[in-house]
Amino acid sequence: MIDAAGRILDRESMGEDAFWAIRGGGGGSWGVVYAWKLRLVPVPDRVALLTVDRPGPSRLVAELVDTWQRVGPSLPDEFYLSVFLAGSTRGNATASFTGLFLGPKNSAMSVLSQRYPELRAEESDWAELTWAESAAQLAGWGQRRS
């Protein structure tokens, strides 16, 4: 990254806070990223995609999100799980969870039911697809299929 002073910074010289921010953790302009290295991982023939909404009183939804914050870091590297929150003026909220597991649906369901039973994900919340189909679905293209 090149910062406002024109210095070329790598991960070590920019520090963990700036590195976190340029990966989507902050909303400001931290500098110009001129190079980015990615480590690709093998993708299996089939992946599992989770989409589930959990509406309810704000307090209960907040508890569900609090649990997600503690569970997320302990999930296997093959598991991605995010949440989007929406509120209302009536004291209710909705937590919309999206998950992607690099493996079959039954394995994903087993992992999540053991690590995050509070989510109450059901088989109908999951789809098993190719990675390309899951990417299209996450981008909002195509229809969900199981």
Automatic annotation (TrEMBL):
It comes from the Eukaryota. InterPro entries: FAD-bd_PCMH-like_sf, FAD-bd_PCMH_sub2. GO terms for molecular function: flavin adenine dinucleotide binding. This is Reticuline oxidase.
